[in-house]
Amino acid sequence: MHLAYPAVLAVLLFCVGLYGVLARRNAILVLMSVELMLNAVNLNLVAFDVWLRDRLHSGQALTLFTIAIAAAEIGIGLAIVLAVYRNRGTSAVDDLRDTAERPDGGDGDDGTEGAALDEPAPDEPAPNQASPKPQSSPTSQKAEATA
Amino acid sequence: MNLAAQHHGFLSPTGVEIAFLLVGLVTLGAAVVTVTTKQLVHAALWLVVALGGLAVEYLLLSAEFIAWVQVLIYVGSVVVLLLFGLMLTRAPIGRSPDADSGNRWVALGVALAAAAALVWVVVDAFRTQWIDLDGPAQGSTDVTGAILFRHWVLPFEALSVLLLAALVGAIVLSRKSDRESGRTEQESGKSDRESGKTDRKSGDRTRANHGTQAPQQARKEGTR
């Protein structure tokens, strides 16, 4: 097999994941795109391990480690997203601009201006923001059940 | 390269190459749909197709054990975790118009530039290299197990510690606000310091909610 096939496929998958990380608004979709990027790296590792005929098979061992670390990352990431959602009522990454510095010296904490900038299409309000306060107790119980 | 590699060429692909190409096209298409669809649950389901296609690619590269680990870990657990995350954050079921942020075109430009540069470099670098897939499979479960527990056993054990730390961290992150909210309900007004802390936090929450929801509520009533 030509080595360019898996290498080019890995490059294209990585760039698709890069687009997803930069363009998506929901934090869970950003996590999905990160998974795509990690999988592109895994494909590269496996392909070059087979190509080099490594005696220690370091590519495949590193692929297994990457898969395990990706699983840990997705668990921690989802726990953080759920905690943010419970506290702020949203999981859109561009609404979370409390630490942003504005050019006029003010902090980015005034939510009205940011919300006016990031308003979705006006005909249909986002349903996850339409329900104001997430009920914390059943949500956390489900989170424990998934953990 | 050995003598058989002399007969390789772009214009005479082998069967493995054709299979790799077809599965790769399916994988890439599923990945593109994953990052562009407006329906959040469909994105997770297309991610299953992309990750399953990658497992088939691993099989074609004779990495058998990695392929089954990919199916077990990614398709089996990571996607299920993502679906649970979508469910717990009350993701909309239908089309959500705000799935993409405003910097989509900048992101598209960055991704296309990165893809063009990387494809050019990779194709130019590995134009004359072929993977020799003949002979015994290099990634069979036998070989991988022996290598993993003979040469890589120390990183393997360190990885188990990392997984344990991630498990404890996820539990702590999920339980923290639960305890605080329980304290808010049970001991409201008991202790001055605690109630001050919870009041500040709830004030924070209402301010954050106020900013994002007041225009939408007004707009929803306007449309009615």
TrEMBL record, chain A:
Residues 126-147 have a biased composition (Low complexity). Residues 94-105 have a biased composition (Basic and acidic residues). The keyword Transport applies. Residues 93-147 are annotated as: Disordered. GO terms for cellular component: NADH dehydrogenase complex; plasma membrane. GO terms for biological process: ATP synthesis coupled electron transport. The chain crosses the membrane at residues 33-52, 64-85. It is a multi-pass membrane protein. It is found in: Cell membrane; Membrane. GO terms for molecular function: NADH dehydrogenase (quinone) (non-electrogenic) activity; quinone binding. Its EC number is 7.1.1.-. It catalyses: a quinone + NADH + 5 H(+)(in) = a quinol + NAD(+) + 4 H(+)(out). Keywords: Cell membrane, Membrane, NAD, Quinone, Translocase, Transmembrane, Transmembrane helix, Transport. The keyword Transcription does not apply. HAMAP family: NDH1_NuoK. NDH-1 shuttles electrons from NADH, via FMN and iron-sulfur (Fe-S) centers, to quinones in the respiratory chain. The immediate electron acceptor for the enzyme in this species is believed to be a menaquinone. Couples the redox reaction to proton translocation (for every two electrons transferred, four hydrogen ions are translocated across the cytoplasmic membrane), and thus conserves the redox energy in a proton gradient. Belongs to the complex I subunit 4L family. NDH-1 is composed of 14 different subunits. Subunits NuoA, H, J, K, L, M, N constitute the membrane sector of the complex. This is NADH-quinone oxidoreductase subunit K.
Automatic annotation (TrEMBL), chain B:
Its EC number is 7.1.1.-. The keyword Iron-sulfur does not apply. One of its GO terms (molecular function) is NADH dehydrogenase (ubiquinone) activity. It comes from the Bacteria. GO terms for cellular component: plasma membrane. It is a multi-pass membrane protein. This is NADH-quinone oxidoreductase subunit J. It comes from Streptomyces longispororuber.
